[in-house]
Each structure stands twice: as structure tokens, then as C-alpha cells.
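Researcher: Next entry in the queue.
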Amino acid sequence: MSAVVVHGVEIAESLIAQEAQNHPGPTAAASRTAAAHALATKALLLRRAAELGLDPAPERDEDGREETAEAALVRAVLEAEIEITPPTEEEVRRVYDAQRAKFRSADLYEASHILIEPRSDAERDVEAARLAAANLAAELASGASSFAELARSHSACPSGATGGSLGQLRQGDLVREVETALLALAPGQVAPSPVRSRFGWHLLRLDRRIAGRDLPFEVAAEAIRVRLESHAWTAAATRYVVALAEATRGKGVVATLDEEGVRGGSLCLGDMIGDREATRRLLQWLETADPHLLFLLLEESSDRRTEPPQLVQELVAKFVGRADDEHWTRVVSAARNGDDPAHAALAAVLKATLPKTGGRLCGGDGQCTH
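Model: Structure for this entry, 370 residues:
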């Protein structure tokens, strides 16, 4: 099973492929990158939840859908670790004063219509409806009948029972062609000719315009406060996640995410840098696993006049301090088939840093290059 490392999390490629479907992007590579970062962030948050000893307490949304245990743990971590300062009255007031236009009730209008609906989509029925609407328009223009009378006797819309009144409307409530024609009228004016929509032919009258009003500060303040708190919390959560990912630098692979969930990482090399006993065990392991690499290590140690355990620590420290996700992915891949993953990973780092091995990841001085 192949894997990549992102923010110190080893992620199964199969999970990234599945998650990429939730991150549409301009290219497949962009979707894959977004998916890998999302999965790494989730794994780090779940790892932190375990460190804090949190238990999931799923909640339900307004539609009765229950969040997953993982989502509940992620939420619990953020709630436990993030604190924001509520906005002051002065801050809320500044937003209100600077964005006054946003805190208005919507402009409204009242209108009436008479709908003449074709019996079918057949051309003759559509034409018959048009002629009927035109005749009603002429009758209205002559003053022979009132709009309400014609609506009650001819309109195919339920509003005909109330004289064609559509009540109070906001922009967007009606189909575009009808609304455009209505808003071009003056209050009390009837459109000079019927207007076509997908429903049929409409005789239109604009009854009244109602301008929106500025909402008082006391009414708008709560919505502003909620918005400011939401923005502050989102920013704080972003900073927290970035810090969580940054904290993995210098530690290697701190967690593994696969189909079975999140577990501890097998390549926390950063924790082994100061353990001279661990490096001695590595030397013993290399005697059997890779004698040639041990020979090159001892030769380099002699050239530098440094004890082998000290040289191992120096090379690993430089690698850990400078390696990026791509470097860690290569080390994980190299060590994946080893009987002892930690030692196999250390061996892979040595192969990447010792000058006489070719050092594909880093130069001979331990300086990582791309």
C-alpha cells in the first residue's frame, strides 16, 4: 500500500483518492493536494483529541442528522483549545457605522397580475392565449372592466380570487421577465402589453413600492456580534491548525492514517536524535541488514574524526530539521518493506545524506536539496 506524508502524517494513497472527490479543483493534482492536506489536518486533530483524553459527543443539526464520532472529536478539540475574546460594544458599533448599507430591511413592492395560461404547448394554444391576453389588455385600457374583475374571471393563478394581488414581494420572488417588467412601472401603472413567461401571458400592475429602512443599531448589533465572533473563531482555528502542523516539523512521521483510522507514527526520528543507545542499536542492526552502508558510515566517521553514533545523530538531526513532506514520503516508501521500520527509516536517511551513497535527498554535508 503506497502512502505520502503531509504535515508529519503518513496517509494511505487510497484515502487521498477517495477524499479528492470532495475537493474539486482546476486539476486532478490540485484536488489531490487539497484532499491530502484535509486528511492530514483531521489526523492531527484526532491525535490531539487522544492526547487530551477527549471522548466524542456527537450532536445533531437542525435536520436531525448526527455528526460522526470523528467530527465530534475534531469539534471538541477546537472548543477545548481555542479561546476568542468577544467583540466589544465599540467594535460592533464601528462595523455598524462603516457598513450601514448592509443593515437595511429589503426593498419591497406590491403587485397584481392576471395569468392567461395556454391549454398546451401546441403553437395554436400558445397563440390563442396571447390573443386572449391582448384582448384583456385592450379591455383594461378602455376602462370597460377593472383589473380585479378581470383577474377574478380570467386569471389561471390562485391570486385571481383576490383580484390578482400577489402581496408584498422582494426582488427575486418572481421570474425574471415578469419582475423586470413590473419594476419598470410606476406605482398604479398597468403594463401596456402582456408579458410572456414559461407559465403563459401576464397582465401586470405595480401597486406600491416600499423602500427598505435602516435597521436600528439595537436590532443589528446581535447579528454583527455573531459575525465578528465567527470570523475571529475561524481565524483562531486556522492559526491553531497551522501551529499543530508546524509542531510536527523536526519529528518526522507522528501519525499514520489508513482505512483503520489514526494511530501513532512509526518514524518519529526526531525523538531518536538524542538517544545514543538507539544509534548504537542501529549500528548493530546494520551489521546484518546492510553491511555496505555500515562500512560507508564508519569510513565517513573516520574521515570526519567523529564517533559513529555522533555522526548518525548529526546526519539525522540535519535531515529532520530540513526535510519536507516529499523527503519524508521517500523515506517512508524506502522503509515500508523493512522488518524494523524505525531502523530501516534511519538507514534510508543515512543513504540520503552520506556523500558516498549519492545522497539523493540531501548533499553530503546534510543540506537538503530538492
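Model: The two ends are 25 Å apart (CA to CA).
Researcher: Noted, moving on.
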